[in-house]
Amino acid sequence: MSVFDGARRGAKTGASRATLALAAVAAFLALGAADARPARRMAASQAAAAAGSPVFPEASFAAAWAKSGPLRTFTGQDLFNQIDGGAELFLEFGFARLRLQAYARADKAELTLNAYEMESAASALGIYLMKMGRETPFPEIAARNSSEESQLTILKGRYFVQVDNLGDVRASRAEAAALANAFLAGVAEEPAATPLAILPVEGRVAGSERLIRGPYGLQPYFTFGEGDILSLGGRIFGALAEYRMADGTSFTRLIIPYPGPDAAAAALAHLKGNLDATIKITAGRPDGFDFEDFQAKKGGVTRSGGVLNLRFKVTR
Asked: What is the pTM of this model?
């Protein structure tokens, strides 16, 4: 029996869900149509930066603080000089620049504001979801965040922001939040056009949702093959989440809306023809295939129009 047989049976009684999912796909593709070319997206990001970037706060965000050193800026591949071993993920999602400013107090407390400007709000959201861990927000911060005393991790518009509190003396939570809010006041809200709404609600594990835009983001979840195995091309977002169903089945689902049926069919053919050697195809279909991984866990891929629906690490 195909791992998608249950989904097919459920589809007979879930037409309204399918209609909603297709509507979500159409809405996402419509929103993303003007953002189809990476060069165009980067130019738009640079134009926005030239028009006026959020200003880094003066030391007046709290008493007794002063700037420590100059504002530092990293663009493109320069990010490797600041992040050793983590720059690839930022570049994959569409990194524009990082601006970094340290602040110090006489008692050796130190706060560092790291403002990552991404090429779009969707890119910033992708990074945030990868970095937030178990989301634990501080309510006093004026944007979505997942924070702890030593580091605030924040999302607003096309900015992914971290405030590090790593001095010899710990700054107070109120001081760290004040610095973050002073910067966030100058950051514009922007809608994020992503395919997250396509993910079915039933069985989805809250907080497991992620965006995938290439091999570095996919790597922690599954290895289908080398390189850009899903033909995302540095411009297509997929939506991923963990699922636990009422019948005890659990799996990871990844749904990718391509620009159209031809692009999805080409992506399916590329995936099938370049699978990792540890993956064994157990059944083939015109619209996809089923497989088994090296741990004998089952999975499957199905194409419907311009969308690929992948399930893997299926356990019962």
From this structure: 0.85
Task: Please give, one letter per residue, the 3-state secondary structure of 209-235.
Answer: CEEECCHHHHCCCCCCCCCCCCCCCCC
Quick one: which H or E segment has residue 312?
strand 307-315
Whether residue 134 sits in one domain with residue 85? yes
Q: Which long-range contacts (CB under 8 A, 24 or more apart) does 204-207 make?
A: 204/241, 204/242, 204/243, 205/241, 205/242, 205/243, 205/244, 207/134, 207/135
Q: Which residues contact 78 (CB under 8 A, 6 or more apart)?
A: none
Q: Which residue, 131, 141, 159, is CA-closest to 48?
A: 159
Residue position matching structure tokens 């405030």: 163
Q: How far apart are CA 263 and CA 212, in angstroms?
A: 17
Cα–Cα distance list, 223 to 15, 164, 220, 290, 300 (Å): 32, 33, 8, 15, 14
Cα(10)–Cα(146) distance, integer angstroms:
36
- Domain final residue pick, 152, 184, 216: 184
Say if 46 falls within a structural domain.
no
* CATH classification at residue 154: 3.40.1000.70
Query: What does pLDDT average to in each consecutive run of 10 residues of the chain (316 residues)?
Result: 40 42 50 46 46 84 95 95 90 97 96 98 98 96 97 98 96 97 96 96 97 96 96 96 97 98 98 97 97 96 98 96
Which residues constitute the domain of residue 21? 5-37+194-315
Question: Measured between alpha carbons, how far is residue 150 from residues 112, 130, 167, 173, 184 in Å?
Answer: 11, 18, 9, 9, 19
| Burial class of 194 by CB neighbour count within 10 A (0 to 12, 13 to 18, 19+) | buried
